[in-house]
User: Fold these one by one.
Assistant:
Number 1:
Amino acid sequence: MSIAVISDTLASMIRIATPLMLMALGGLLCQRAGVFNIALEGFSLVGAFAAIAVVQFTSGNVYMGLLGAMVIGAVYSALFALFITKFKADNIIASIAMNMLGMGLTSYLLRAMFDVQGAYSPDKIQKLEMITIPLIKDIPILKCISGQSIVTYFAIAMIIVIYIMLFKTKRGLGICAVGESEEAAKTAGVRPVLVKWEVILMSGALSGLAGAYLSTVSVSQFSENVIQGRGFNAFTALVFGNAHPVFSTLVTLLFGLADAIGIRIELVGINISPSIIKMFPFLFAILALAVSSYTAKLKMKGVIGHKKKKEKTA
Amino acid sequence: MQNKENKRMLAAAGVVGRQIGLIIIALVLATVFLAVSGYEPMAIINGIIDGITVDIAGTVRWATPLILAGLAICVTYKAEVFNLGVDGQLYMGAAAATAVAVNIPASMNQVAALLLVFLAAMIAGALFAMVPAIMKVYLGTNEVVSTLLLNFVATLYIEYLVTGPLRDPAAGTNLNASQVLNENTWLPRISFFEPSSANIGFYIAIVVMAVLTFIFFRTAFGHEIKIVGSNPVLAKYAGMKPKKTILQVMAMSGAIAGIIGAVEVTAVQHRLLAGFNPDFGFSGIVVSLLANNNPIGVLFSGIFFGALQNGGINMERITDVPSAVTEIVTAIIFITISAKFVLPKIKRKMAEKRPASKGGK
């Protein structure tokens, strides 16, 4: 393999991992605050649709699309937050309901607003320009970081922001405290309900952006299966990464790599069915899940196990 | 004694009343939704009414897989295990059913052939359910995530089968499907409902329901499932083996899911089609929750959701109202049910807290 091929594969790895990163970052905030959020899938589906709808109504402005997706993603996630905090809904069931509602709403609105079924591409869409970074673009392998879209750089910035917020600020301490023990957090003056609203809305906005990336940057259309389990993959990544911003991001990069290698195999023309290649990220995620749960079992109960146990004894 | 019986009846009536309330809320919301987006507002309600009066056949056709899916969910739910992988397991069941059916000689006795096909589907479904079950029991993996991921693996595997090994060579380039099965492996349709594809899978669903009801309420194993679900520590002290119980309920759930796959292939499609499953597994969760995870209740809630699905499809055919609105109704019922869960807990907490503080709000 030549260096050009490697750096090409790495560049597509980053491109593929960008939406996963955004979703995992939102999801890990929820995880830290003790909200089991597998609704990332539904949030991003709504975001993907919102982006295309906004692009259509602003005659092709993709930046408005990205922004609109974040806002609408957050609004949609507010419903989840409402049920989790106000009505004390079961996290898992509410998440699945949100995913289902996302599927129903988007395919309904696809018919109601654009009168099409399955997929829709806006009349006009401006292509998001790729940003080249002056110095890095000349370094052989590292140049994969250059030439990405603004969303990728935003995701990288968010890793740093969330890392600092979680581990260096009082607010981050509050989030983790709510996840550890709501009662203790309450006595320390943190309001769990507020914290949960905050993290769920953030994950809604980030997932919305992830969906927008998939529908407006990766391809230029919304289709009903545009997310295709990426939300669940992102969730696996944050479980494997122990809800740590940096580790979880690294895991999403690994998932991206599995996908990128699959695409490369297809390009080279090795005779494997594309359906089998598309399975790679999922098989990889299941393996990651098994490894992480096993190591967590060996050490001590992980975030999820811990929480579940607590619920049962309560 | 009489008093106790009365109380139980009242409680049951209360549960049923509340569930009907949820359904009405969801339907009203959907009606508002339709009105706002400029469609005929009564479309969905008319669809359901037609589904239980004029077009019972279609309702039975859709109720069959939904009842079975609901049963598959309620088995595991009692043991506090979330099997979100019914979709994947039913795909694997369908794949095994097809693989066996295409290899059965056309001269074989129909009953024997069908038994073989269904057995294969049940085994395949159960084995595929064993993957997350073993991961949960021995590695401590959260089954919610693993079953969700395995659904995608199964879906892609079917895609691979119908574009590769099982592909019908005679099919056009646009159709990815296996060859049409021999008639001796077709599950008979109910002749009364001809020409609809309502089939005797409905009777199979009722038999499965009866078996589960018996297991839950009349056997030691059923009791064990409930104890393991409500208090695994106690179960262990009482000499039960929670791990074994979890494996058993997952196997049962997977086998029931396999039956759905076999019914869909042998009675409805008569061949394996990529993506034939409109998320029966997820709908099964609502079916089971709406029935309070009671197998007998699942029968009724399955019929309700069957009528809803059927009504949505008819509605789309007659008017231009998108059938996705049924998915919205299902999701609304889903999310409102999730809120119900903790109601007794909240009440208890409020009772405890009232004298001490003003509470968390």
Note: Residues 354-361 of chain B have pLDDT under 50 and may be disordered.
Number 2:
Amino acid sequence: MKQLPPLRKRGDLLILTMLLLCSLCLMLLPLHKQGTQAVIAIGGVTVGVVDLQQEQPLLSVTGAEGFLFCVNDHGISVTAAPCPSGLCCNSTPISAVGQCIICLPMQLTVTITDGEAQHIAPDAIIG
Amino acid sequence: MILMKKKVLFTFFLPLLLLSTACGTQQRSLQQETIAAMDTLFSLTVATDDTGVMENAIATLTELSALLDCHSNESAVSLLNEAHTLECSDDTLPRLLTETAVLQAKFGNEVQLTCRPLTALWGIATDHPYIPTQEEILAAQQTIDDSGISVHQNTITLPDDASLDLGAVAKGYALDRVAAQLVQTDTEYAVISAASAVLLYGQKPDDKAFTLQITDPQSGSALGTVTISHTEPQQITMVGTSGGYARYSEIDGTRYCHILDLQTGAPAISDLTCVTVFCENGLMADFLSTTIFLGGTAQLGKHLSADDYLVLAVDTNGDIFSSEPLQFSKAEVMA
């Protein structure tokens, strides 16, 4: 059996160091990607898309009447809900792609996206 | 020599070509306004750098609201109803009447504009709804006959006792007039919605499709979404919807819808709860949505397979009927 040559050359050591550094960088990178938009849906249908870059301490969305949202520090939280329990108001602000706040009684979902999501607010509501 | 020509071609024309491509994809600024007109709220979104486009659209809607409203004593329609003859200053009202007559000849007389005596009698969705006697209904029915309307150039003449209520087609017609203005401008795209009538104009950036949310007639929440793609820069889609769920009156615990069945002289009883029509003409969308609603499921089949318009209808069981080319996705109901 042919034996592998020992790490003698400077180039080998350099490659090994670079690989180790890359691995370290990957470990230190945040696991969650910061979102840029929050998609607000009622009953599965998008009623609003909120830009998380703009601070909005008191935000109401047409189609999600009774709810109030707060956009702060690139995250969003629910501050008021029309349902009796108001459980979603206790949830912490969300900001990472994929994170979600759900209000079951009112069928509300707030989902963080990176702005490339397929869900978009309707151009118009008829009826 | 040939080589030089090629050089010139690349030096001058290629940058020009690239520049023109860049200009072509430049996005216009988005203007948004909401106005009250025709007894509803109009929400206007217009992508254009010309501020005059929005101003003209609002002016047109406001003007038409004042012109076509039979509830306002000063409107042209009220003056016509009073005097039974009117020489109009332009062709706005005469055109509405002649275009409606064309639709009636093609699709039937279920929608008639001389229905004002009957709508006034019932007063549905007003502060004073009333259940009339059979004699009162018969008397009102006898005045309903659009074939008696005479339009000669800009002069309109109504038969004795006839009076107009344009509620069934006014919003769609108004959107037609706005669309006619938009095509004269550099507007990239526009969305104008007025609860039961919507105009989708042009192409959104990156050729994105328009999304239209349809309201569930039973719950009032979202029934689903229709996706509409425009392939031409000045393409127009008009949407009109009719149903008894949004405007009605409750008298002694019974709900009466605002759409009247001119055959019975009473509020319509249909096994359809909501009909939405998609086509290129707003008046036609309005007219057809009411016609199909009145016809119920028995008449629905021929409309679903029509070539020049698409239909989405919901019946009293909650079943959804849709023309095949329509891209409708039902809203997911969470557990």
Note: Chain A has a mean pLDDT of 80.
Number 3:
Amino acid sequence: MRLPGVSSGASPSPEPLNAADTLSAALPRLDTRRVYVFPSRQGFMLMFAIALMLLGAINYDIGLGYIMSFALTGLGLVCLLHTWRNLLHLGCLGLRGEPVFAGGVASLRLTLDNRGQPARRALDFAHAPGRMGLFRRAGLEAVSCDIPADSLHSVILHCPAPRRGRLAVGRILVETCFPLGLVRAWAWLAPRDDIIVYPRPRGRLPMPRAEGGNRSAGAGQREGDEDFVGFRAYRGGDLPRHIDWKVLARSDNLVVRRFVTGEAAALALGWEAAAPAGAVEARLEQLARWVVDADERGLPWSLSLPGQHIPTGSGEAHLQRCLTALALFGEADT
Amino acid sequence: MSGGRDRSLPWLLGALALVVSPHALRQPPWVSAIFVLFWCWRTLAWRSGWPLPGRHHPALMLAKNLFAVGMFVAVVVNFGGRLGRDAGIALLVILTGLKLLELQRDRDTYIVTFLGYFLVVTNFLYTQTIPMALLMFAVVVVLTTGLLTLNDRGAGMSATERLRLVLRMLAQTVPVLLLLFFLFPRLPGPLWGLPQTGADAVSGLSDELSLGNISELSLSDELAFRVDFGGEPPPPRELYWRGPVLWNDDGRSWTVGSAISQPPPRVAGSSLREYTVTLEAHEKRWLFGLDLVAAAPPGSRLTADFRLLSDKRVRRRIRYSLGSITDYRVLDISAEERSRALQLPPGAHPRARALAARWAAEGLDARALAERALAMFREQAFFYTLRPPMPVGDPVDEFLFQARRGFCEHFAAAFTVLMRAAGVPARLVTGYQGGQYNPVGGFVDVRQRDAHAWAEIWIAGEGWVRADPTAVVAPQRIDRGIDTALPRSSGVLSLAFRDNPFAEAMLRRLRNLWGAAGNAWNQWVLGYSTDRQQRLLERLGLERVDWLRLGFILTVLVTIVFTALAIFLARSAAIPRRDPARRAWDRFCARMARLGVERNNHEGPVDFGARAAKVRADLATAILQITDLYVRARYAQDAQAAAELARQVRAFPNGGRRGGAESKDRTWKK
């Protein structure tokens, strides 16, 4: 399932991602002031070895010993510049996160701009909200990648999303020890984008009755061919034109698109109906449960929250809209 | 992560084999054997999955640790309990071998690599020749490529690319290296005590001459010293380099004997020749100079028999300047010298003494006696050879009356005996004679095979006069060097080119070039010392700089070089030079940007061209043409279009330089 982008959070309605959208979030390329370098542990080890060599060279008067120590010193300096260059001028066109349910792990797609630049190797990206020491802290889950010369490249990072709402991605650490591991260069990418985290679908309350009386959920619908409401497994007799061939191509499952004719009975999912679930968060979780269930069953539904009403609808876009409304409930709009 | 480590392993193994191999010739065989064992074990573990000590094989791990302790003890015992240079290196080699077995983490690979760098320097403790330097350079390249391979975790680079990057980085190191090498404050003298290396196989003259010694020396091609006359050197027959003077004859061998306590006698002479000598280490105290040295350089003194004695043993290559009086005349002889110059062991050389007594009875003076002896060598059947028969009885008598074959020391010793027996004060002088002039470097090479022995006799009114009986028997030895007197079989190359004068000349030229390179290497790389640094700084106009200022200057210069390299690297772009279309297009975009129309990231060439043409209607034709050409060159592989594009872009107005246009155009954006 591919969820449309939600990078510009002002409007919850899904919009196809376009170039201008991405560019609005583009960060300036990493310039000299934003790339930090410091010798790595190995770098300090080499310095120690060089000091020993130089002492030996002075004491035993070895001309080539001097040359070896100075060559390694020079190599360290050159390595420092190469490591620095390995990050310098790296652009970031922004971050796109797929919405995620609370308690899950969000995938962040970081688009890197390396156009007109030489290849970069062995870059580590890690989502690192906290502060870091001079040496890389163990336990930070990093994604390692090479970036070909003159290209756009994307990296997918994961970050836990414990609570619903807007998840500020915070800082992303990019670091490298290439080419010789003697020096570590790092920089912080701080995309302003955030990710919508939906409330976790949870709750045991039964689904509210459909609108319009005593009919049980779904009673008013008939299989037909007017409105698309969802998918179900293939049964003998289904029309071939209802088969979703794309799904078949992907997964070997015969799935048909379900259509209903006539007025489907709409579920009215309301703030009040979820009241028995308890406090605000519990109610939101219950509502999310219902919304997801309704979508799975292919039922249309409407959602009303205090100060907000989303009219009856169904389908992917509707689902997104409702879940987003639940996620952002009570938060400032921007 | 372990991919990089595995791929770096062959580089590491290769480099370690190279760096340890010269040590194998010097270390006790068991040390090398242990290293080879571990090396092979590691190689087999890598290629065929042999077990290694580690968490999975605790028994092996324990065995390994016990072994390490055992090795330490073995080394201490083997080297007699002293942890000197050789023992330290033995430990280092074994440790490196052991460490090869436990490359569990990246850190271990770094440690072994740094051990490898360190082993490079330990090799220089023994030899610092150009071939050794080249070999060690190869080691550094391979080791560094191993490090690069370790860090290229994505395996995105081919071996060639990695080697090329390492070579490029090493080339970029050169400016910093040169600055540090020449300007890093050089400390004089050792920081702690040098180990007693002992007289291990340093060739050179000895202070004793028993007939049969110098022939071994004669064949050695090793350099004894180099002399720079600052121009054409004197002809070879004048190049007598004075070494030990032997006074005492015990019947079989000659020795220096006890020192003569007087200062050097007075010397008259008018022509002074000045030169600089670079003497190789020979573990003895004497220095060499042309007959006769006028004054001793600092740190040495001149003895009564005009030998130069250094205050300390010559344990490293040294350089000193001398002046020699070539037309010398020694004015005095002391009673002590006269009696020692007439000494003969009682009962030795009876036949030689009898002969000399006959000559003396004829009433000849000193000069005539010497002429008589030389005439005997010239006229009778005496031969110069490097392989004389071993004497059984009295060596001088046997040489003079039976064998009649020998080399310089036989002739010189026999001559000295004859002179003393005839009552003429005489002494035996050893040293070197001749040397090969290297026109490329402008210096004279004196090698061990140029070792020579001659005699000096005291003639009243003339002083000590040199008499070289070898010159009478084998004049070419003196005039053209020992090469003509030696068998010509030395060296495969000379053998191959024996009958080809042209090739022989080429070979000589190559040898001269190699010699000149060796000299420059010795002077600038190996012999670059506190003094030379001071002289260099003075030549650069920095007189008497102290450490602090030198350090400051060095820091500033390194920073400049470093910054220049940083700018160069930061500007290096990915666009291959061979894509002229892309280059021209980028230049066009830059010019457009200066005109105020910046290409947006999402704009392809066609869109950008269209927008730019709209914004700058005045340039629309050129813009659209360029855009079209670029599209054709890029996407239709149209070579002509590329050429035309470059031309058009060059002609396109470079308007950004005019400030007015820029500010006006800024309003067009958005």
Note: Confidence is low (pLDDT under 50) at residues 195-201, 488-492, 657-670 of chain B.
